[in-house]
Amino acid sequence: MFEWLKAFRKKVSKLALPDRQERAGRNQGKVNLKPYTPEPKVYLGQLAYLLLSNFEILTNELKYAPTTAYKAELSEAAAKTFEKYRTVSKKLSGLGFDVTDSMDPFVERIDTFHSRTSGIDWYESVIKIYLVSGLLDDFYRRLAVGLPSELREDVEKALNDKTFEKFAKRVLIEGMAGNESLESRLALWGRRLMGDVLLEVRAAFDNRKLAGSDKDSKLSLEQERKVNLESYAKIEPLVTEMIAAHSLRMDAVGLTA
Hints:
Layout: H1 2-14, H2 20-24, H3 40-61, H4 68-94, H5 99-116, H6 122-143, H7 149-159, H8 163-176, H9 180-203, H10 207-211, H11 221-252
Helix pairs in contact: 3-4, 3-5, 3-6, 4-7, 4-8, 6-7, 6-8, 6-9, 6-11, 9-11
């Protein structure tokens, strides 16, 4: 996996941010993820814990908000994030699954992801959730294509909420105004986050399903390596799209990816 990520980082360094007219004309639906959508319990379980952990981070950051106005607005944005979680958790319950049991297999992985991407101050935490939740919400919205239609529509509707994104854009732009040191630090932090997001996206897939391999067959080390390489190749176009989306989010707050 790490060899794959290193190779992609080389590609990223060669990518240029397109002009605004070119962006508007791009087809955002190149990669068909329908064959790779996990079963509902797996899909909803990991999405639910991601949303719950985002809510936990946002509520923890309330006490560090630089102004009372920011604290009040962040509390509203955190509440909207919890509503996303509640929608997904209700869908799990409605399908007959225990919510905690569905999330538990993903707790260690997602907690590790957050520990690797923990900001050192309020602004780093805000831009982290702005970039990370934006990319992962986009990803899970795309990945929902293989879910039953009613379930897919409800998940997509929940993930479409932009309350935190709008708040984050404004406070980041305001915070960086006239503060070159903060701007430089957040630019570096934003670039560093992309690699960890790609690893989290990669972990959401089943290697064997991506590679078209029998999930119950016993593989040698060489066969396992081949499955991994084939599965990585399947999602390279998706990763390219996500890198472009990350660049647009950075650009929206005046930073270069």
